[in-house]
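Um, can you check?
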Amino acid sequence: MSGSGRRGRETVYRALPLTPLWCDEGWMYLATVIDLFSRRVIGWSLSHRMTKQLVCDAMSMAFDARDDVEGVIMHTDRGSQYCSTQFQRLLRGHGARSSMSAKGDCFDNACAESFFHSLKVEAIHGERFETRESVRAVVFEYIEVYYNRTRRHTTADNASPVKYEMAHAA
């Protein structure tokens, strides 16, 4: 499927600010890329460090998930990982365009805050994770099995992101 199956509209992906997740082995940081059309998480990566490689890995996964990303607008915050030469080169190499939030614009992060809130309330809060692998397993299950395929979104006509994309496929 090209983009999300939309024609005549700009495709916008949103890279979310990194969020920390705790386990007994230390912090894990989650980077995600969401297609704003369907709210589908199309790329994500976890690491014990907040690096430019972390966001590049999430972005690469997003590019691999879509057939045609030429002209996609990649909207991010102004974090150093997203401003890095490596990340910007990755975008240009796939024909994507970079867009960044205005400094201190909390409304630009509404999608990010909503996703991370859902993840933490529905899968993380109240749980104790002994290992980084256990965090990775829970995040995988939440994103790939539940959030993208089952969880309904009001912005997607009360359908899951996958069902919404299928309903709007060209």
In short: Strands lie at 12-15, 19-23, 26-35, 40-47, 73-76, 97-100. The chain has one domain: 12-102+123-167.
